[in-house]
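RECORD TYPE: inverse folding
INPUT: structure tokens
STRUCTURE:
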């Protein structure tokens, strides 16, 4: 087909516009693999792109969507052939390169990995960048030498996509998980994912002290700013926090006290440009370690024509767990 359905963001003198419309295959960007997209997902970054709340999109027109699962339609890359099932996360998709909220994409084959064995395309997108990032966080904590015997692990923004998967992965690995959220009505949901304790995010919202009472040995932070500063101040001696999000802001109003007096480590985790070998390791571990029933319990599936509304909801903090977008 020469034309296909896509979400297209454009910009003119009056501002940004976004609509679902026909897009011509001839206008796809350069790449050596063309993929027919079956599923995508909704991340916070996708919501920012759709709403224009932050300058995620770097060129116009842009098709948003940072994740995809689909089938190779054409390839000049020796690693992939027509009919291969593939997954893509990051690499500027939906930011600088036309993204996944379209029935077709053309990308560099180096960005793709095979669909992990044991996962359907829908399950892979239920995991998406959020789940893949959560696994990268767990792997970073493990590389630092931390294990459940050291004490509890905290997850901030626990009801969100990264947070939900992080709770499930940490619990499956044997951690006592403290789930921080501003939505106490979701306590049963979080406990169903494996959380042992629910912590009101208000306890992490006040002016951070240089050092506070030691409460956890490890953590996954998706919020940043004051929340992360408080989390660090309460981390046990020799502990570490994997930071992967900035929903609360890019600032960090902390002191060096946790780092030099308690030997605490702050582990930055990037999923967008992570090397291929690390991506494959993370995806293969997710396929093995994330319980599929637990994944289903945190997942909602929507058609492409509902993604604009869902994008506003995720920015407003009204999305729970993971959202899969059926593209085709």
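DESIGNED SEQUENCE:
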């Amino acid at each position: 087909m020469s034309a296909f359905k896509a979400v297209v963001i454009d910009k003119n003198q009056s501002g940004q516009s976004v609509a679902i419309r026909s897009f011509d295959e001839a206008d796809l960007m350069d790449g050596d693999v063309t993929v027919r997209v079956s599923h995508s997902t909704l991340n916070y970054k996708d919501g920012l792109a759709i709403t224009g709340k932050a300058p995620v999109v770097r060129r116009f027109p842009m098709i948003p969507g940072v994740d995809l699962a689909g089938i190779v339609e054409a390839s000049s890359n020796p690693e992939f052939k027509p009919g291969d099932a593939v997954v893509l996360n990051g690499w500027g998709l939906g930011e600088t390169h036309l993204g996944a909220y379209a029935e077709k994409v053309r990308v560099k084959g180096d960005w793709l990995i095979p669909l992990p064995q044991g996962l359907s395309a829908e399950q892979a997108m239920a995991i998406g960048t959020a789940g893949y990032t959560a696994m990268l966080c767990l792997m970073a904590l493990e590389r630092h030498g931390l294990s459940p015997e050291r004490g509890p692990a905290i997850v901030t923004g626990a009801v969100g996509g990264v947070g939900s998967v992080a709770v499930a992965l940490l619990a499956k690995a044997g951690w006592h998980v403290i789930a921080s959220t501003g939505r106490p009505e979701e306590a049963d949901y979080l406990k169903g994912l494996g959380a042992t304790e629910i912590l009101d995010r208000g306890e992490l919202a006040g002016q951070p002290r240089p050092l506070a009472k030691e409460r956890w040995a490890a953590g996954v932070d998706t919020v940043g700013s004051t929340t992360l500063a408080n989390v660090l101040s309460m981390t046990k001696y020799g502990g570490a926090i994997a930071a992967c999000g900035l929903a609360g802001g890019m600032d960090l109003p902390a002191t060096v006290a946790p780092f030099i007096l308690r030997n605490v480590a702050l582990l930055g985790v990037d999923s967008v440009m992570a090397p291929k070998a690390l991506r494959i390791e993370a995806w293969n571990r997710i396929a093995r370690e994330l319980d599929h029933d637990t994944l289903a319990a945190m997942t909602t599936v929507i058609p492409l024509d509902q993604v604009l509304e869902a994008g506003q909801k995720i920015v407003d903090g009204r999305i729970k767990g993971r959202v899969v977008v059926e593209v085709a």
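NOTES: The CA atoms of residues 153 and 218 lie 5 Å apart.
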